[in-house]
Amino acid sequence: MSLLNTLVNLFYQIVQTLLIQLFSPNPPEPTQRLPGPRVAVIGTGITGVSSAAHCLGHGYEVKLFEAGDRQHLGGIWSQTNNTSSLQIHSVMYRFHPSIRFRKGYPDRQEILKEITELWEHYKLNERTTFGVRVEKVWRDEKTGKWIIQDPSYGTFDGVIAAVGTCGDPKVPHISGQDKFSGKICHSSKLTDENLKGKCVMVIGGGASALEAVEDAVHQEARHIVILSRSTKWIIPRNPVIDGLLALNPFGKETSFSWLPEALLRKLFYRDMEDLAPAKAGLYTQTPLVNDDVLRQLRAGRVSWLRGDIKEFKENGILFNHREKGVPKGGAGREELIRGDVCVMATGFHRPSLAFLPDECFKAPYSPPNWFLQTFPVGHPDMCATNSTYVNAIGTVGNVHIGLYTRLLLMYIADPSTKPTAAWMRVWVDWTRMWKWRAPGGALEFFTYSELILWVVLSLVFNPWRWRWIPFVLFGWGRIRSVKHSRTTTSTASKTHVEEGHGAETKQENHDETKDSKEDGVTRQVNNGSGTPSYASAVASGSSNVKFHNKPMRREARDVPSSDVQPDQTEHVKVKTVPNDDAAKAAVAA
Questions:
Q1: Cβ atoms < 10 Å from Cβ of 521
Q2: Lateral strand order in the sheet of 333-338
Q3: Which spans does this entry mark as compositional bias, Polar residues (predicted)?
């Protein structure tokens, strides 16, 4: 088994090397400021850092804003326990092409290390302002560009709100908790707690609760009891199974949904089938990805009770224990659950998007009911990646971050590709009509394959976007050489875009004067191992585009040696969207 694991990990490292070579854009030179459009990125979690790196790699200047200090780099991962780790396989959490995970299920330290290295590799440390809580974003009437918080930061051609769905810890007040003689703490604050030999009560049934259970088991707690109002689907920590479940392109329960649900009940839950949701289908809410909890339940180290908390007592919690199928608040039997420590695994407050313009929240087109769930209706030069979703089967850290970022860059560079406000409404209305009977909601729940399908169809059904397909889907594009004449006479520009594995764009200025190196400015922006910044090329105003394949060598990021030890606050008016702490487990989009 050890040999097999070694071979699998070796294969994984080879795959990651290929991904780096093919899709990783190169960073700008040190202290270089790109003359192209500017994009503001709000939040320095995985989404914010990755989005900013994509922008720079394709020739767009960026400015990052973070409400917290330097310690908040990494978003929610900067707030979790030292024992926290990724619940899904890291192949589904490659939030930027240039990162390289050493393990299939990396811990918090390795994830933060990758975020920090990405931040530094793309010179984002020179472009980040900490301690600025963005409270207002508005459009400048004169230029039509965006102003972030204060005009002193200048204007921006685009805005990416990367505030995520997990903000400050949510700690509800429960009747009688002042009487409890034991310790009460939030699940994100377990690093300094000593749980060895103690009876631990965990309030909550989401990803935070399962992580708290794993932490308590690691600390050798005597017994752990989970107290939850309901149960969610739990799926195995297996990238093949998780990937197959996310392949439902309809993003809702179908006539075939019974099959994976039945297989999970019989093959995964087995004797623990009572813990599976009684009525909720698999494609209605974010599932939990975990193997260990069911093993601990079978071993007797963990108990799971479904019901309602009545109040705290001096030595425990008075609990209304309900049977499976009885709704919340329904009849049950009262039990006193004794414990020494109570862990509030109650998730995190959802960061607000209220700093965005008020028109972004006008019903019925308030988040998540936006174009592609990410672009506010009427504002294609603004997106809120990973900040509007409610439930999903997929991942918050993968190729969609780059896809959404490059869509934004395309809209900025080429106005002919922008969707109109009317079309954005039509897309939302059509999606809601298509999924109107979906138990999980139309845009409140989606699968990862559905999300990718949205992006692909948005490109295919608009001929003006066809030339952008290699750029948006694969990140292939860069400016190869641009010459600007210094004379004031009229200039006819002609742009050729060569697209493929690598591409290059040449803009030739034909003037009455003779072109020379002294009369022009030459700029080269590398986008990965030779990937041209196609976005900036079209931004120059070109409409004469031709495509052909031209393979080019890509430059991989420096890879640390195997003996080096590894070392999401995403600041955001989601008025109607409830918190889903399953996002912290990285399951969702």
A1: 11
A2: 183-186, 341-344, 199-203, 223-228, 302-313, 316-321, 333-338
A3: 523-546
Residue carrying the six token digits 């699998």 = 8
Angle at 44 between CA 49 and CA 419, to 5 degrees: 65
CA distance 467 to 464: 7
Q: β-pairing, 155-156 with 302-313? A: unpaired
Class of domain 177-346 as given by CATH: alpha beta
> Which token pair is 562?
């195997």
> Is the Cβ–Cβ distance between 16 and 100 less than 8 Å?
yes
Angstrom distance (rounded) from CA 186 to CA 347: 9
SS3 419: coil
Residues shown for the chain? 589
Q: Vertex 569, ends 204 and 153: CA angle to 5°?
A: 155
In the three-class reduction of DSSP (H, G, I as helix; E, B as strand; rest coil), residue 392 is classed as strand
Give per-residue pLDDT as tens, 351-365: 999 999 999 999 999
- Calpha distance 230→556 (Å, rounded): 47
Torsional sign, CA 388, 393, 399, 403: negative
Between CA 233 and CA 273 the distance in angstroms is 11
Domain borders along the chain are: 177-346
Strand-pair partners of 200: 224, 341
Tokens, residue 186:
């939030």
Q: Report d(CA 370, CA 94) in Å as an integer.
A: 25
Q: How far apart are CA 365 and CA 161, in angstroms?
A: 17
Q: Decide: 383 and 160 in contact? Cβ < 8 Å.
A: yes
Distance CA 411, CA 376 (A): 13
Query: Beta-carbon neighbour count of residue 403 at 10 Å?
Result: 24
Count CB neighbours of 484 within 10 A: 14
**What is the chain's mean pLDDT, rounded?**
83
Instruction: Look up residue 51 and give its amino acid.
Output: S
d(CA 457, CA 25): 25
Question: Per DSSP, what are the bridge partners of residue 156?
Answer: 146
**CA-wise closest residue to 479 among 536, 548, 413, 520:** 536
pTM (2 decimals)? Answer: 0.81
Q: What string of DSSP letters covers 291-355?
A: SHHHHHHHHTSEEEEEEEEEEEETTEEEEEEPPTTPPTT---EEEEEE-SEEEE---BPPPP-TT
Assigned token pair, 8: 């699998």
Task: Report whether 53 contacts 122 (CB < 8 A).
Answer: yes
Structural element, H or E, at residue 535: helix 534-539
- Beta-ladder partners of 526: 532
Give the tens place of pLDDT for each residue, 353-409: 999 999 999 999 999 999 999 999 999 999 999 999 999 998 889 999 999 999 999
Tokens 């107290």 -> residue: 227
